[in-house]
Design brief:
Length: 423
């Protein structure tokens, strides 16, 4: 396929595993950039890409989906204040606390760090936040620090009244918060970062590792370990815990914080042998929603359902709601191939959606492709961290691979998500 050369370019340039975001998403970005650069076809666009560093960056930014908002995963920021206070006491005034947000996207995360610490009573001179992202345009937007309503989600928005000023239909962040944060364009795989060895007491690197293949995950993790002080804390995304557990890190023990520290070498034990069955002893699974297909997905044998006569393929002219409904009908009827094709068509035509990745995960899961199922469930959780079905099925998958601790954590999160939805 002619797209393969573009996939290799993205892997070599930014370490992207195209399968982690889906080839359809990259193909969609290629079509956008091909049209924007007035290239007649992919061959002409490839030549344009090779000759222009500006176009290379434009393609990277078209592939990257900066889905972020202030105080995303609020429990992390509650834990941050506690851990930062402890670390500052250990430093005993020797220097300020140093924190890193990587990737920082359009600034919501590093500014949330700044607001959280200021609201917890930290003096401005007590900490500094460095923020890096591979996208110069995202950094430019972060420097403006003007945000629309999409950056403010959840029910607790009191911080907006404290730290922002309304400007037309947007909100301007206060200078007091902004001056704590230093922004720069940088690539996590840039060798120049080695000069910052051991510099940071706390690193936020959330929802990045899931986009890389295993060798690149290892490279990035080594960079993060290098940047982190020996006694430092690494905050990650909800879907990345099982990755860090395999790489020598352990959770700090604060629920829902997604915070990890270095594993004590003396406490490291051999990984458990695979569990004979998928179910683990933990909080009971929530009942599936009406759209949750494949009741056999939790069976240890992971055999596909019996063949059912496929439904007609949805028409190409369907809008987003109709296509989602068609995917549900195809999946629930057992028309696996058509359901998968419809999911892929949805991702080519519309913005990524957690439920679509959940269906793709379920389709892969029941067909016995655990690797693909793992990737799709993690994508769903990146887009919707409390997606109960994705949490439960990922928990079952981890349990079948011997990661019973990771499975229990995910089951607890799923049960909590289900209780919150009922309220």
């Amino acid at each position: 396929m002619s797209e393969q050369r573009f996939f290799r370019f993205l892997q070599e340039r930014i370490g992207l595993d195209v399968e982690s975001v889906g080839a359809s998403m990259v193909e969609r970005a290629l079509r956008q950039r091909c049209a924007a650069s007035a290239a007649g076809d992919l061959d002409h666009y490839w030549l344009c890409l090779q000759q222009s560093t500006v176009e290379q960056q434009a393609l990277i930014e078209a592939v990257i989906v900066p889905e972020t908002w202030f105080f995303r995963y609020p429990e992390s920021f509650t834990a941050l204040a506690t851990l930062a206070r402890k670390r500052l006491a250990e430093l005993a005034g020797a220097r300020p606390l140093r924190l890193l947000s990587l990737p920082c996207s359009t600034g919501e995360e590093p500014y949330s760090i700044s607001m959280a610490l200021l609201d917890a009573g930290f003096a401005p001179c007590a900490f500094r936040v460095d923020a890096m992202d591979i996208s110069p345009s995202s950094i430019a937007r972060a420097e403006l620090a003007v945000y629309g309503r999409n950056s403010f989600r959840g029910s607790d928005l009191a911080f907006r009244d404290r730290h922002f000023e309304g400007v037309n239909d947007s909100y301007q962040l206060s200078e007091r918060v902004r001056r704590q944060v230093s922004l720069e364009a940088a690539n996590v795989l840039d060798p120049a970062l080695r000069a910052r060895s051991g510099l940071y007491d706390i690193v936020f690197c959330r929802n990045l590792l899931i986009y890389f293949d295993i060798p690149t995950q290892q490279r990035v993790f080594e960079v993060l370990k290098l940047l982190l002080h020996d006694d430092g804390v690494l905050f990650i995304g909800p879907a990345e815990g099982s990755l860090l557990a395999r790489l020598g890190m352990r959770p700090v023990g604060i629920a829902q914080s997604f915070a990890y520290v270095r594993q004590d070498p003396a406490s490291v034990t051999a990984p458990p042998s695979p569990a004979p069955v998928v179910r683990v002893a933990a909080t009971p699974a929530p009942p599936p929603r009406a759209t949750a297909w494949a009741p056999n997905a939790l069976q240890a044998t992971r055999t596909p359902p019996a063949p059912i006569r496929p439904l007609p393929e949805p028409a190409a002219s369907e809008g987003e709601p109709e296509l989602l409904a068609s995917i549900a009908r195809l999946a629930n009827s057992g028309a696996s191939d058509q359901a998968r094709a419809s999911c892929e068509r949805y991702l080519r035509q519309f913005a990524p959606k957690a439920q679509v990745y959940y269906w793709l995960g379920l389709l892969s899961d029941t067909q016995g492709d655990a690797g693909e199922a793992l990737k799709h469930y993690r994508k769903a959780l990146y887009l919707e961290p409390q997606h109960a079905e994705a949490l439960m099925h990922l928990a079952a998958l981890l349990a079948s691979q011997g990661d019973s601790a990771g499975a229990r954590r995910l089951q607890a999160r799923a049960a909590k998500a289900d209780r919150e939805s009922e309220r």
